[in-house]
Amino acid sequence: MTDLNNLISTFSNEEQQQFITFLEKKNKRSDTKNIQLYKLLQDKDLDTFTICNTLYGCQKKGAYHALRKRLYQSVIDFIANKHLADESTVEMQLIKLLITARACLTKKQYKTAYKLLAKAETIATEHALFSILNEIYHTKIQYSYSQPQDKLEHYITAFKNNQHNAYLEDQLNIVYAKIRQTLNNINYKGAVLDLETLLNNTLEEHNINLENAITFKALYQIISIVSLSAFVTNDYYKIESFLLKHYTSIKSYKNRVKQTYYHIQILYMIANTLFRNKKFNEASQYLNAMETQLKSNQKKHYNTFILKHNLLKGLTYNYTNQQTKAIAILEKSTKLKHQDIESQLDIHLCLIMTHIQHNDYKKANQVIATFYHTDTYYETKAGKDWVIKKNLIDIIIQIELENIELVDSRLRSFKRQYYSYLKQINQNRVITYLSFVQLYFKAPNIVTTATFKTKVENAFVWIDAQQEDIFVMSFYAWLKSKMENKPLYTITLELVEMAKTNVN
After folding, report:
1. CA pair distance 37, 32, nearest whole angstrom
2. Whole-angstrom distance, CA of residue 128 vs CA of residue 216
3. 335: which of 185, 193, 268, 352 is 20 to 30 A away, CA to CA?
4. What is the rounded CA–CA span in Å between residue 316 and residue 303?
């Protein structure tokens, strides 16, 4: 697939129509064929020869490739314009303030300019945006002749301190990149990870003293690194003490109130880690702390993080036998309009899971039917693992609804699209699991036999319950509920309770 095809394949239905409107406004001639080409490219079964013939009635390869090139540039322009129009980040706000301040300075409106620069400095400092702060201080120093004499030294000192912080951030970014690369290699080779040693050695290599580097933003970067290790190894148990230890060390940090954005991120990551380790009471405490931060500073960051908070809150309710509350908060969250598409997708998927555990397969099917985009689209928004979970859940729903033809179709599609990938990443137990699901689908009575139970017991490489992923446990709970002929939610809570006992 070419770059052009790759880009347009990510468009949602709404974006497809918006792009056609964009081309219509852009076209100055009525005979321009870019819209026609775009529509033809939507049909993946059409080859270049056919498309060229449809457009020109013959093989005008030069004209065709020139048209593709222009369409490709239009796609880039459309995506860039759309994201700039949707952009409401702090960085964009600061750039606008900085540009306006510089315009005022050129017109000798010094008082107004320095007020704008002061406002930009306050916001940039709060968010530890050192590169933008560098531009702010550079501008202040450049026009310092318009200010009282004692201001210049103050600007120079602030500039040098910021340069140090920027250098430290750059070094932490290099550390992040190196550790992430190591984690990828470890995952591929299946090696054992000593995270603390790896981090300390990498920090030492770059002459970074963690005590001096620690701010909520720096801690967020470090926690992002260790969270990556948990994601790669699917082992959140190993990183828990590391996260709690370093968070405790920074709670007295003098500028913590001014870095609320990163504080919220950290609280979410810790709560998520505790949840994945089945420590639901502790996770709830950090979620409460996160909610307090969300409501601080006039709810400045509330909308940014409310979906993540509600998702984790709903999941915590679900696994502590408060399913009614879980469904309520997840359903409410699906109705919130938000730019965090990944969290929206996670919320929908978790709502489907709770409906299944609640034995309400029709509602689960109604929600999963809202996923009307292609798997390729969802991979770009939430990742391949999310798509695999979605497809596995869909198969379970169709089995429960006795949609025989759909189940056969879904099984064939899943095998064709994901078996080679699962083997490549050493996730053969997903393939094994699906084989048992298929056996149940073809002969439901077989799953309650001793032979089947023994076969399941011997098929998987079992790990400690405290380390097992809670969502993997939830998938297994469905199969176990069939084997023991018990309600799914009951079996799910029993498995989780057993894991909690092992943890505590």
Report:
1. 10
2. 9
3. 268
4. 21
Residue 190's pLDDT is what? 44
Place of tokens 């639901």: 280
Helix (H) or strand (E) holding 36: helix 34-41
Closest CA to 278 of 428, 495, 111, 99: 495
Low-confidence ranges of the chain (pLDDT < 50): 1, 87, 187-192, 256-257, 504
What is the Cα 344 distance to its own chain's centre? 10
Name the DSSP letter for residue 284: H
Query: Is 233 in contact with 192 (CB distance < 8 Å)?
Result: no
Query: Residue 384's pLDDT is what?
Result: 86
Tokens at residue 71, please?
Answer: 């369409």
At CB < 8 A and 24+ separation, what contacts does 465-470 make? 465/495, 465/498, 465/499, 465/502, 465/503, 466/237, 466/277, 466/278, 466/499, 466/502, 466/503, 467/235, 467/237, 468/499, 469/234, 469/276, 470/275, 470/276, 470/278, 470/319, 470/496, 470/499
Integer Cα distance of 115 and 84 in angstroms: 26
* DSSP class per residue in 278-327: T-HHHHHHHHHHHHHHHHSGGGTTHHHHHHHHHHHHHHHHHTTT-HHHHH
Please name the residue that has the structure tokens 């129509």: 17
Q: What pLDDT, on the 0 to 100 scale, is given for residue 470?
A: 87
What's residue 61's pLDDT?
84
pLDDT of residue 464: 65
> Helices 240-250 and 216-233: crossing angle, nearest 10°?
180
Residue 64: the pLDDT is 85
| Residue 103: per-residue pLDDT | 94
DSSP string covering 437-495: HHHHHH-GGGGGSHHHHHHHHHHS----TTTS-HHHHHHHHHHHHHHHT--HHHHHHHH
Q: Given the structure tokens 């870095």, which residue do they identify?
A: 259
Q: By C-alpha distance, which of 353, 356, 330 is closest to 343?
A: 330
Give residue-wise pLDDT tens across range 46-103: 888 888 888 888 888 888 888 888 888 988 888 887 766 554 567 888 998 999 999 9
Q: Which two tokens stand for residue 172?
A: 């932490």
List the one residue out of 395, 399, 409, 478 whose CA is nearest residue 442. Answer: 399
Q: Which pLDDT score is estimated for 369? A: 93
CA-based nearest residue to 283, from 294, 270, 295, 299: 270
Residue 448, token pair as written in the block: 């309650």
Tokens at 228, concatenated: 């990556």
